[in-house]
Hints:
Layout: E1 5-13, E2 19-28, E3 33-37, H1 44-51, E4 59-64, E5 67-68, H2 73-78, E6 80-83, H3 95-105, H4 112-121, H5 137-149, E7 155-159, H6 167-182, E8 186-191, H7 194-200, E9 203-208, E10 211-217, H8 218-225, E11 227-234, E12 250-252, E13 258-264, H9 272-281, E14 286-293, H10 296-308
Parallel strand pairs: 3-8, 3-9, 6-7, 7-8
Antiparallel strand pairs: 1-2, 1-4, 4-5, 9-10, 11-13, 11-14, 12-13
This protein binds adenosine-5'-triphosphate.
Adenosine-5'-triphosphate (ATP) binds near residues 14, 20, 42, 44 and 46.
Organism: Pseudooceanicola albus
InterPro entries: AAA+_ATPase, ABC_transporter-like_ATP-bd, ABC_transporter-like_CS, ABC_transporter_ATP-binding, P-loop_NTPase
Pfam family, one: ABC_tran
Amino acid sequence: xxxxxxxxxxxxxxxxxxxxxxxxxxxxxxxxxxxxxxxxxxxxxxxxxxxxxxxxxxxxxxxxxxxxxxxxxxxxxxxxxxxxxxxxxxxxxxxxxxxxxxxxxxxxxxxxxxxxxxxxxxxxxxxxxxxxxxxxxxxxxxxxxxxxxxxxxxxxxxxxxxxxxxxxxxxxxxxxxxxxxxxxxxxxxxxxxxxxxxxxxxxxxxxxxxxxxxxxxxxxxxxxxxxxxxxxxxxxxxxxxxxxxxxxxxxxxxxxxxxxxxxxxxxxxxxxxxxxxxxxxxxxxxxxxxxxxxxxxxxxxxxxxxxxx
Length: 309
Ligand SMILES: Nc1ncnc2c1ncn2[C@@H]1O[C@H](COP(=O)(O)OP(=O)(O)OP(=O)(O)O)[C@@H](O)[C@H]1O
């Protein structure tokens, strides 16, 4: 099956000459969750806005469910639900009406059951007759998601869905996204919360200065770039790293009670066996050993700073 979203050499140069997108290529399969990660100003919002027809690309093509975003704009846009970064809602409008109205904008017939279902899913049903201005910030954000889904789009863009949202609501949002995925909705989200990408996304695309540095399965990215740290807890504190362990990439904790050794999981030889033999030879008594893997956050920071050099 053809990818639901196909982006080919998409470029955007803003008036004034700033190149915000420098030839983006990206294919997204139906039902996939892709996290778009990148530092401030990387071009994430520009990419989303371009795909949604809010911003005109300078060159390149993109299709949504086979419809070209330029030559078949209306039909392409119909396939998309957009949850923008900023909350734009008319304060005096009613919650339920927002969803009905949004559906109507796409020329879809009124569907009370569908709108009620969305209101219930996002715990807004009891508030359906309230005005937007009576809602909390988190509730408003949920109205935005309900609105974006009211015309039954195939692809949902979430531009930083959980920015400024408390932990409980963030978890709710993750659950809602997981449920939408089960229904076959394709989701592209931008986030600064890297644990969010790690928890939800099937693939992660890293974008920096208008270019995609990499797109990879979340699990493979972790494995490919992941480093592990072996921590050796000691029975007796060490004042310094003993000469017998010199030349190894070791760090001693400030309290002298643990040594940590960072190694590449991809390497043919991790050096762990040699390290352990030397620890034993040096007469160091161990209390415990553990390993930890780098989080996506660490990988991401590494990648972005590597690119910056
Ligand atoms: N209308 C515009 N005119 C000129 N430059 C713009 C315009 N909109 C965005 N830019 C520039 O394009 C670059 C990419 O911005 P964009 O908003 O796409 O980044 P982002 O990755 O979404 O950032 P953030 O994480 O901060 O939301 C930035 O350098 C920004 O200043």
